[in-house]
Amino acid sequence: PLIRRIVTVAGSGTNEPKNLEVRIGTQLKYVFDACGGVKENTYKILMGGPMMGNAQYNLDAQVGKATNALLAFCGNEEKTVENPVCIRCGKCVSVCPMHLEPLIMNMYATKNRLEELETANVFDCIECGSCSYICPGRVHLVHNFRAGKQKINNKRAAEKAAAEAAAKAEAK
Questions:
Q1: Rg (CA), the chain
Q2: CA–CA distance, 9 with 27 (Å, rounded to integer)
Q3: Could you give the CA distance from residue 51 to residue 68 in angstroms, rounded to a whole number?
Q4: Which long-range contacts (CB under 8 A, 24 or more apart) does 15-24 make?
Q5: Which of 10, 34, 74, 99 has the smallest number of Cβ neighbours within 10 A?
Q6: Cross-strand pairs, 16
């Protein structure tokens, strides 16, 4: 069975970046302690890579079977903007591995045009993060796609519940 994993610990918030062999279930704070700890002004910890990694709320999370990297960011690396704007450069389209049009899907998602969003094949998006990573406008594309998918699924569930309720009422 898999009981250990090689984990890369890196980023500007790490005192001593290195590769470690870590047991599955080890808390992140112990992994970072083995690397000299995290710097005081660290603002983000990612479990995974910079594009598909998941932000961790604290260092009590545990290393899992799929954990391959821990990234700590500090200083002035925060590149987000308060109100990101798409400049329609098309870079997101060129990097999409699924050959989708993220800029069009983002427009539909932000305007709650769910039918058009579904027609634009949002469910084919694998949420790799390539489009968000390359976006010079710093638009949160993957987040918008996830939210759009959830809205579509909620709408489907509501329609199904309404149809079942109508069928029950009709049967009485």
A1: 21
A2: 13
A3: 13
A4: 15/39, 22/63, 22/67, 23/63, 24/62, 24/63, 24/64, 24/65
A5: 99
A6: none
What would you measure as the largest C-alpha separation in the chain, in angstroms? 70
The C-alpha angle 49, 121, 119, rounded to 5 degrees, equals 150
pLDDT tens profile 129-156: 899 989 999 899 999 999 999 999 999 9
Indicate the burial class of 58 (C-beta count within 10 angstroms; 0-12, 13-18, 19 or more). exposed
pLDDT digits (tens, 9 = 90+) for 82-113: 788 999 999 999 999 999 999 999 999 999 99
Contact 95, 37 (CB under 8 A): no
The per-residue pLDDT of the chain, averaged, comes to 92
- Length of the chain equals 172
CA dist 63 and 9 (Å) reads 12
